[in-house]
């Protein structure tokens, strides 16, 4: 790492707003794919809905960065208001639970981010009552939190923990392909839902990839 | 009187269920619809749900009835927030999501609410709608 900037040990307010902005970019770029995935087993509006939701979340970001926790709660609220589908309350709850876990901290270290990720998973599972294997966003989100915790326990720094989480989300999402849905509209299809990537898991990957990108960029 | 809110993906469906429930509630039950997204398309709007709860709240609590997916998730989220507000000392009665079929549950809840029954009795009436078999 000679000559490069120091690896970030914390997330600050600017990185949190950058994360929301970058997520909105990735969702916008992938909106058509998400909608196509949703058309196969859902009601075919996931990309459109989430694009609208994250556009609203970006618009709600404060001009002068608030503390990270407050920013996530604000973004979560906007997301819920504008998304219109099930992903609104679910991602809104995830962001708000994570924001609450951050509390008033102005700098979020690796341990605190791990607790926030876990709080987000718990919030989503409480609200949606989905377990791993049900072919939902939980199949990407829960492995991401677990991988983060494992990387942290092994002494990983913030960038490596976040990268581990993003990779685990990607693997988790791929693993939804053969699953039969037990939640959401796809569950009405029964066995016909197998053979398709779950759109919620796919969008969860984008959110965690955005975080890994933002932290990775700060790491230089 | 306990108020009711009908949450559906479709504005037309929510309006229709509310109309039917009001009629079955002998014109006395307070039933507010929250249908569709904020632009009138299919979906769920947390703002419309919150406005409907406010309009249905008479201080004795509000029972939510929801159709599918995001309607149910939005309702549960709003219930959590209302509970947090009650704990924090905010005004207004309790907000509860009934585990009931939309149309039958709304009709049963409105009939019971019109008698002046308390919140739990109205919820129980809504949830008893599952027991009314059709064959």
From TrEMBL, chain A:
Domain DhaL: from-to ranges: 14-213
Any GO MF annotation of the entry: glycerone kinase activity
Leader sequence segment: none
EC numbers, comma separated: 2.7.1.-
Listed name of the protein: Dihydroxyacetone kinase-like protein
PANTHER family given in the database record: TRIOKINASE/FMN CYCLASE, TRIOKINASE_FMN CYCLASE
Keyword set includes Phosphoprotein: no
Enzyme class, spelled out: transferase
Keyword Kinase: yes
Single Gene Ontology BP annotation: glycerol catabolic process
Keywords for this protein: Kinase, Transferase
Lineage: Bacteria, Bacillati, Actinomycetota, Actinomycetes, Streptosporangiales
Cellular component terms per the entry's GO annotation: cytosol
Domain of life: Bacteria
Automatic annotation (TrEMBL), chain B:
Keywords: Kinase, Transferase
Domain PTS EIIA type-4 as annotated: residue spans: 1-135
Catalysed conversion reaction: dihydroxyacetone + phosphoenolpyruvate = dihydroxyacetone phosphate + pyruvate
EC identifiers of the protein: 2.7.1.121
Domain of life: Bacteria
BP GO annotations: glycerol catabolic process; phosphoenolpyruvate-dependent sugar phosphotransferase system
Example of a GO MF term: phosphoenolpyruvate-glycerone phosphotransferase activity
GO cellular component term, pick one: membrane
InterPro entries: DhaM, DhaM_N, PTS_EIIA_man-typ, PTS_EIIA_man-typ_sf
Assembly and oligomerization: Homodimer. The dihydroxyacetone kinase complex is composed of a homodimer of DhaM, a homodimer of DhaK and the subunit DhaL.
Cited function: Component of the dihydroxyacetone kinase complex, which is responsible for the phosphoenolpyruvate (PEP)-dependent phosphorylation of dihydroxyacetone. DhaM serves as the phosphoryl donor. Is phosphorylated by phosphoenolpyruvate in an EI- and HPr-dependent reaction, and a phosphorelay system on histidine residues finally leads to phosphoryl transfer to DhaL and dihydroxyacetone.
Protein name (Swiss-Prot/TrEMBL): phosphoenolpyruvate--glycerone phosphotransferase
Organism: Actinomadura viridis
């Amino acid at each position: 790492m000679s000559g490069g900037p120091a690896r970030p040990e914390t997330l600050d307010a600017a990185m949190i707003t950058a994360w929301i902005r970058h997520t909105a970019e990735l969702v916008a770029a992938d909106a058509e794919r998400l909608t196509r995935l949703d058309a196969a087993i859902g009601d075919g509006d996931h990309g459109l809905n989430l694009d609208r939701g994250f556009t609203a979340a970006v618009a709600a970001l404060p001009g002068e960065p608030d503390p990270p926790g407050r920013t996530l709660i604000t973004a979560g609220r906007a997301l819920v208001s504008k998304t219109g589908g099930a992903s609104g309350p679910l991602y809104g709850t995830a962001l708000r639970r994570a924001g609450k876990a951050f509390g008033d901290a102005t700098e979020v270290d690796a341990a605190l981010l791990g607790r926030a990720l876990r709080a987000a998973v718990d919030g989503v599972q409480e609200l949606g009552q989905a377990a791993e294997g049900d072919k939902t966003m939980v199949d990407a989100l829960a492995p991401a939190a677990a991988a983060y915790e494992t990387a942290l326990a092994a002494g990983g720094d913030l960038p490596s923990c976040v990268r581990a989480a993003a990779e685990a989300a990607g693997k988790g999402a791929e693993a939804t392909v053969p699953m039969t849905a037990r939640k959401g509209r796809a569950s009405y299809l029964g066995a016909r839902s197998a053979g398709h990537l779950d759109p919620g898991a796919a969008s969860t990957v984008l959110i965690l990839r955005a975080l890994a990108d933002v932290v990775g960029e700060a790491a230089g | 009187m306990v108020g009711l809110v009908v949450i559906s993906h479709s504005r037309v469906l929510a309006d229709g269920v509310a109309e039917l429930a009001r009629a079955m509630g002998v014109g006395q039950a307070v039933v507010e619809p929250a249908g569709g997204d904020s632009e009138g398309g299919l979906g769920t709007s947390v703002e419309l749900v919150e406005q409907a709860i406010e309009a249905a709240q008479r201080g004795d609590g509000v029972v939510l009835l929801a159709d599918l997916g995001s309607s149910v998730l939005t309702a549960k989220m709003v219930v959590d927030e209302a509970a947090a507000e009650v704990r924090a000392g905010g005004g207004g009665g309790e907000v509860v999501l009934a585990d009931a079929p939309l149309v039958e549950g709304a009709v049963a809840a409105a009939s019971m609410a019109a008698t002046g029954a308390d919140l739990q009795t109205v919820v129980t009436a809504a949830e008893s709608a599952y027991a009314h078999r059709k064959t």
